[in-house]
TrEMBL record:
It comes from Paenibacillus polymyxa (Bacillus polymyxa). GO terms for cellular component: plasma membrane. It is a multi-pass membrane protein. Keywords: Cell membrane, Membrane, Transmembrane, Transmembrane helix, Transport. Signal peptide: none annotated. It is found in: Cell membrane. The chain crosses the membrane at residues 53-74, 116-144, 156-173, 179-196, 231-260, 280-303. Coiled coil: none annotated. It holds the Pfam family BPD_transp_1. Residues 114-303 form the ABC transmembrane type-1 domain. This is ABC transporter permease.
Length: 316
């Protein structure tokens, strides 16, 4: 068919302007598929939620925390009553995790020990957070001579053997949960301060900081209103990795006999007491050792997932 024939056919159609309907801006936009605008935290949560390993680890941690609170209530036994007629019993319907060398119920003692270990780990991590953020923020923001002096002090403190400092504190002070937390915090805040210092050095010369400074913002306002909120991602990740480190340190001290004292028990002290007869009564070591391993693994996997979610360099 020729071009001339096409023109004739179009004329026969008798198309009129009123046969068409004008499309407004709303109708045009309705056909456009738009992506919801997400905030930085919402975007990080979406990325974290897609990480199945991290979410599984978070679920495990929540269950462990709940079990450490509710678990001892599910048993008619307590964690301190001795029963010399029921020593070293294997797991059964009456004693779900068996009993120890003094006849105490291992199920109750395991969850009570987990509670104490979690309290020590979380408390030490929060104190490390407060000291490290303030110290590192001051180092990084002021820089120069202030940064040099404060950084040298932290390096000297970090070079002192951790175990030596802990033993000295436990000798001077009466061994208790508070003493252990203090011992863990003597040098535990240094890593956090170095992380915060590095973030401050990167952020303090950004445009938004210079603009705030030109508008008369003081050092305190710049540090706590502008710089630290923009460094909260690495701070949270470091915090999640500090908790298992503190729990392991407490378990190590308790294993050496320098931690929680009887009749209280932590997971580390339970492992230490089970060491003598573990070949004959393996359940005494299996449950506390397995639980502390699970706690540390879950915290580390969740921390890795959180780091990946908060790292903008990983966005595609």
């Amino acid at each position: 068919m020729s071009v001339k024939d096409n023109a004739v056919n179009l004329d026969k159609l008798q198309v009129k302007p009123e046969d068409f309907q004008k499309v407004g801006a709303d109708e045009k936009q309705s056909e456009v598929i738009q992506r919801e605008s997400l905030s930085a935290w919402r975007d990080a949560w979406e990325r974290l939620r897609k990480n199945k390993l991290a979410m599984t680890s978070l679920s495990v941690l929540v269950l462990i925390v709940l079990a450490s609170i509710v678990g001892p209530m599910l048993s008619p036994y307590d964690d301190r009553t001795n029963d010399l007629l029921s020593t070293n019993l294997p797991p059964s319907a009456e004693h779900w995790f068996g009993t120890d060398d003094l006849g105490r119920d291992m199920f109750v003692r395991t969850w009570m020990g987990a509670r104490i270990s979690l309290i020590i780990g979380l408390a030490a991590a929060m104190i490390d957070l407060m000291i490290g953020v303030i110290y590192g923020g001051i180092m990084g923001y002021f820089g120069g001579r202030v940064d040099e002096i404060m950084n040298k002090f932290s390096e000297i403190l970090y070079s002192i053997p951790y175990l030596l400092v802990t033993i000295l504190l436990l000798v001077v002070l009466e061994p208790s949960i508070t003493t252990i937390i203090i011992a863990l915090c003597v040098t535990g805040w240094i890593n956090m301060s170095w992380i915060v210092r590095g973030e401050m050095l990167q952020l303090k010369n950004r445009e938004f900081v210079l603009a705030s400074r030109s508008m008369g913002a003081g050092a305190g306002r710049l540090l706590f209103r502008h710089l630290l909120p923009n460094a909260v991602g690495p701070i949270i990740v470091t915090l999640t990795l500090t908790v298992p480190s503190a729990i392991f340190s407490e378990a190590f001290l308790s294993f050496l006999g320098l931690g929680v004292q009887a009749p209280q028990a932590s997971l580390g002290s339970m492992i230490e007491s089970a060491l003598t007869g573990w070949m004959y009564y393996p359940w005494r070591m299996l449950f506390p050792a397995g639980l502390i391993s699970l706690i540390m693994l879950a915290f580390n996997l969740f921390g890795d997932g959180l780091r990946d979610a908060l790292d903008p360099k990983l966005k595609k």
